[in-house]
Every structure is written in C-alpha cells, then in structure tokens.
Design goal:
The chain is α/β, with parallel strands linked by helices and 701 residues long. The chain folds into 4 domains: 266 residues, 2-enoyl-CoA Hydratase, Chain A, domain 1, CATH 3.90.226; 140 residues, N-(1-d-carboxylethyl)-l-norvaline Dehydrogenase, domain 2 (Orthogonal Bundle); 179 residues, Rossmann fold, CATH 3.40.50.720; 86 residues, N-(1-d-carboxylethyl)-l-norvaline Dehydrogenase, domain 2 (Orthogonal Bundle), CATH 1.10.1040. Helices cover 46% and strands 13% of the residues. The strands form 4 sheets. Strands 1-2-3-4-5-6-8-11 form an 8-stranded mixed beta sheet, with helices on both faces. The protein has an 8-stranded mixed beta sheet with strand order 14-13-12-15-16-17-18-19, sandwiched between helices. Strands 7-9-10 form a 3-stranded mixed beta sheet. Helix 13 packs across helix 14 and helix 19 runs antiparallel to helix 24. It is globular and about 90 Å long. It binds (S)-3-Hydroxyhexanoyl-CoA. (S)-3-Hydroxyhexanoyl-CoA binds next to strand 7, helix 3 and helix 12. The site of (S)-3-Hydroxyhexanoyl-CoA has 25 residues, from strand 7, helix 3 and helix 12. It is found in: Peroxisome. InterPro entries: 3-OHacyl-CoA_DH_NAD-bd, 3HC_DH_C, 6-PGluconate_DH-like_C_sf, ClpP/crotonase-like_dom_sf, Enoyl-CoA_hyd/isom_CS, Enoyl-CoA_hydra/iso, NAD(P)-bd_dom_sf. Pathway: Lipid metabolism; fatty acid beta-oxidation.
Amino acid sequence: MTITNNGAVSETSGAGTFTVEGDIGILTIDYPPVNALSQATRQGIVSGMQAAAANPDVKAVVLICAGRTFLAGADITEFGKPPKAPSLREAQDLIENSSKPVIAAIHGTALGGGLEVAMCCHYRVGVESAKCGLPEVLIGVLPGAGGTQRLPRLVGVEKGLDMIVNGTHVPAKECLAMGLLDALVPEGELRSSAIAFAKKVLAENRPLRKVRDLDDKIAAVRGKPEIFAAVRKANAKKFRGLPAPEACIQCVEAAVNGSFEDGLATERRLFQQLVTGTESIAQRYAFFAQREAAKIPGIPADTPLVDVKKVGIIGAGTMGGGIAMNFANVGIPVILVETAQAALDRGLGVIRKNYENSAKKGRFTQEEVEKRMALLTGTLEMEQLADCDLVIEAVFENMAVKKEIFGKLDRIVKPGAVLATNTSALDVNEIASAATSRPEAVVGMHFFSPANVMKLLEVVRGAKTSDTALATAMHIGKKIGKVAAISGVCPGFIGNRILSARGAQAHAMLMEGAMPWDIDQVLYDFGMPMGPYAMSDLAGLDLGWSKDKSKSSTIREVLCEMDRRGQKTGAGYYDYDENRNARPSEVTKKVILDFMAKEGRTPREIGKDEILERCIYAMVNEGAKILEEGIALRASDIDVVWLNGYGWPVYRGGPMFYADTVGLDNVVAKLKEYGPRMGANFKISPLLEKMAADGKKFVRT
Ligand code: 3H9
C-alpha cells in the first residue's frame, strides 16, 4: 500500500510502515502489545529495509516503534514451533549491512531480540525513561540473535556479562554511560530527535559502524579466564539448577576467544539446546502463568477501578512498614496508623533505615530517600484515614482486634474506598460481614515478609467482594511491582495451605525417623532455597509460642522450652556457630528420638525419594483440592503463588507444572503406595485421581 501525506510516502508490509521524509526513511513497527519480533514484525523490517535500499532519495533510516515500547524481544509463543520466514537473522543482516546508516530510536524497553536488532543498527538513541536488556536468561534461554557477541563488543565483557547472566533492564542513562546508547533525547520527541540525529550522522559523514567489527573492549580481557571464573563463583548459589546462565557465560567466552562468526555458531548451538530443555519450558510457562494470573474470568478488563491516590495502613510493625514502602516507592502517599507514639516512631525509623541502607548500596540517592520518606506520615488517630482510597489493615492475627478495626473503618473511611486486610489466615468473610456494613468493599491483600521485597501478593476474594474492589487490589498490586494472584477464602489461602500440607508430611517423617537436616537437604537439592526446619530456625520457633502455656507436647515446644528458639538464640532444630552456619544437632536428635520412644515408635531409615515424594506430592494433592474447591481459579495460579512467595525453583515451573512432568498417574500411584504413612487425615483429592485416570494435565504449556 502507498499513501501520500504531506508529501510523505508510506509503504506498509507486515507490522512495518516505511515513510520517507526528505532524505530520511522512517521504518515504524506497530505490533501491539509489545512489538514482539513475530513473523509480521520481521517481515516489516525486511520490507522496510528493502524499500530503504531501493529508494535513492533515502540517505539514512530511523527504526522506531509505535505504542508503549520498542521491540520487546522474540515472540516467545513462536518458540518450539516450525520457523516462519523471514528469519530474524535476515532482518538483522539487512540492517547491519545497509549502505545507509540505520539509527534505532528507543522508548519503553528494548529487550532480547529487540536489543539484538538495535545492536545491528549503526547508532542508537533513546529517551531517558527507556531501558535496555537481554532478559533471555529469565526464560531459560540465551540471547540467540547475536546478543552475546555484540553486547560485550559494545559495552565491555564485565558489564555485558552482568547484563546477560542477570537479565537486568538497564536505564537509558546507564546505557549511555556504557556506550550502548549514543545519545539521550527528550521524552516525547523521540521521532524528531532521531531524525535530527540521522541528519547529523549524514552531515558529519560519520562511519557506518558495525558492532560486530569492534574488538578493543573484548581484546582487553583476552587471556584473562579469571574474569569468567569470578562470575561463576560469585553467582554459584543464584544459578543453582539453571543451565542458561552457564551457557551465556560460555557464549561470551567464545566472543572473547574466537571470531565473530564462530561466536555466533556457539550461541546458536547452545540456544537450540536450551530452548528444548524442560528448564526453559518451565520458565516460559512461568512467564505466561504470571500474566494469566492477572486476568479475572467474569470481570471485564474495563471494570471501573478505584483511583488509589492515598493509602492508609494500620500497624507500623514489620509488615505494615514493609507494605507502606511499596506505595511510597511508586509515589503514592501513605498514612500509617499506630496505637502508641513510640511504635509509630519505631516503625517510621525502620523504614528510614531500610531506605538509607538501599541508598548506601547505591540503589538510589539520599535525595530519593527523603522524597520517599516525605510521602509517609504517621498518626495515632484512625479518623485521619477518612479520605484514603485504600486502607490496609496489618495488625497481628487476632479476629476480635481485626473486627474492631474494620468496624471503625466502616464508620470513618469515605464510601467507595477499598478496605483490605493483610491477614494470612483469618476468615475474610467474617471480617467483611460481621464488622462492616459494606462487605463488598472488603478484600484480602496478603503480603509476604519482607513485604517491600517479596514479589507475591495473594488477593483474597471474599464471598461479597465487589468486582471493583477485587480489580483495584489486583491493579494496585501490579502498580507496586507485585505479582498478584487471586485466592478464595480458606485457612491459609493458597500458599500457606499448601505449606501446611508439606509441613504435615515433614513432621510425620520426623516421627518415623528422618532428621530435620535429612528433610531439609532433600528439599534444598530439589531447588528450594531452604527446607522447613531451616526456615523455622530463621523465623524463630517461638512464633506463637508462649512459655506459660507450653506443655512439652510437641518437638517445637520442647526445643523452645530449652531456649532453642532458632537462629536468634544460636540453636533451634540446628546448632549454629557465631556466623550462623548451621550444623546437625545431637541435642535435637535426642529430643526427637525421646519423643518417638515415648510414643512407642521405632525409627526407620527413610530414603531420599520417599522424603521428596511425600513432601512434594502432598503439596500437589493439596493444590488439587484447592482447585476443586474453587479456591484457586487456575492450576497455574497455584504455581504463581509458589514461585513468587515460597522460592519454588522456577526451572521446575511450580508444584502443578511439576506434577504434570512427573505424570499425574505416577503421583497418585505413589500417594497410594505410601498410604497410611501419609497420615490418618490424608485423603487423595478426587480431582487428582480423576485427572490421573483420564490422562490429563493440570497446565497448558
Ligand atoms: C528473545 O528475544 C530471544 C532472542 O534472543 C533470540 C531468538 C532467536 N513474546 O508483561 P506484560 C505479551 S526471548 C510474546 O503484561 P508489561 C504478554 O504475554 C524474549 N508475548 O506487559 C502479555 O500478553 P497478554 C526476550 C509477549 O507492560 C502482553 O504481551 N524478551 C512477549 O507489564 C503484555 O505483557 C523478553 O523476555 C514476548 N516476548 O511489560 C521480554 N512479551 O496481554 C518479555 C510480552 O495476552 N516481556 N508478551 O497477557 C516483558 O518483559 C514484558 O512483557 C515487557 C512489558 C517489559 C516488555
């Protein structure tokens, strides 16, 4: 198609439109939502570059994108499917080998294949809010379109490697400093500034710089393998179980030690290996599961939302303070309510200290600390919350206290506001209906500790929660950087209910002869950050324990009575040295064996397979019950909860995804085999049994 507009000529092909303005060709890609490099986008680039080459009036080309972002990467949904022409390589070659300079004009995010295309351009300009990154490692692959070869040539090996193995999105200012961008241009003026830049390139007769030909930055580390060894060592824990980071490092090593073409060949070979591996399949599944979790069946995307301009938080303790930081971080003012000035001062002091620590680590400036602190005010009067759009109650878990608070909020807070409870266990319906006259405004917002760090937000939908309250909680969750998933009302909601099912099996095995460190080791080796007993020691065994009421009736009570209350007392299930290094404890072992003897139990050897299967399959079984009761909307939401709130290893996709990989029939067969050992109250989920019998899977990949 050719149209004329003020003398400008346009041709559209695929997702690309090529326009000529004077002697500059402008290739605009418009492929919502994120301009992924799907077939249509690749076609658009190829046709646009061919049009540029064929037009003698065109002396330089600007590559720019419509919508919210520059090219956000390869189309992940095309992975594993037969390739469709033209290839990304073809599009890149046309740009890099163009005899006319090509300038990438970047806004939003230039990610993965998108940045790899930009690095084939001869120059790159971007607005200050833009970010660049090679996040392929986060979906279990590597930059497979020359990114591992070009980025180190452009920005140096150490910076390039850091970006590639961590998948970080780097702000434009830093990109400029490291040489990834050639100029920053004013916000809102990207198109005109990129055209001006192109004209300058022409006027100054600047060279057609090909990144592939640069050598000085990689030559600087040639013969220095210690640089790669240091990255491997520093990240060993973080990369545990993940094949992609090591493959990324090998590609950059190839960039340093061989020719560009050999490096590309290594990159392509390793990409192919990774893309078909279960780890990457799991990571790609997790990417889409997370986005799916934001969609609420039956609630249209245009449901009216409460515009949250001011937030009230009740309780300035660890939880309330952490929650408050999330809002201040995105510029939303918060009022924190406490019952005593000392508690309020302490809470605000802790927040300031957290921010100052971040500033010391260089995450932001001291000025930014003050800016965020200025958004936080404290009060002892709940009446101050009257004009808040969202109030989150974050006091200790006591139904009577929560009801009293919600009763007051009902009288104080303006109509239309959302009233949320951060309870991790209590009945949201009871809080909503018994304490307020507006149960439709009440929703659970269950944050995970530390609330300013942990990604997960369980949004708990009460029986009467309105569509607006639910959608607002989900929306604000995303705004503050959380991964939000919806749960219905039940004890423990999705995450903690499954944790309890695992805990019950762990405890049962403890009483059969497995030691805490045996169980923890198996779960750690599976990929969890720690097992339940190391976790208990970290959190403190005395959470909810009271000396006066303690009756030596459980192992935990006995340990607390011995002042083995976890890491903080130097001993819990484990013994700790002065650096908090854990080692198995003879004392704990004796406590457990004595307990067993008292109950007439004889310890037996429990194999690693049994430990793993009983722990994990009990979780799967609970997940299936959660699904059949309608507590979770989708099996993938359960995975999202465990991936983002409990450290489930992303390369195993989540408990429900993992169960599919094992085979549901195998899971059910094992649960039946363990039979009574699973506990008197343990029942196999009918849904799980039926799905296993029907040969079904929980999730789609
Ligand atoms: C790669 O490039 C490999 C190459 O090196 C080599 C190949 C040979 N593909 O996140 P959002 C969808 S690997 C397909 O909610 P935001 C997403 O599912 C790729 N679909 O928006 C969602 O769909 P829906 C490297 C994609 O504004 C919608 O777009 N690149 C892709 O919060 C909106 O997404 C990456 O890994 C994709 N690449 O964040 C970047 N990306 O509406 C991955 C998004 O149906 N993407 N969708 O639910 C992101 O990080 C974020 O989407 C982004 C926008 C920051 C861009």
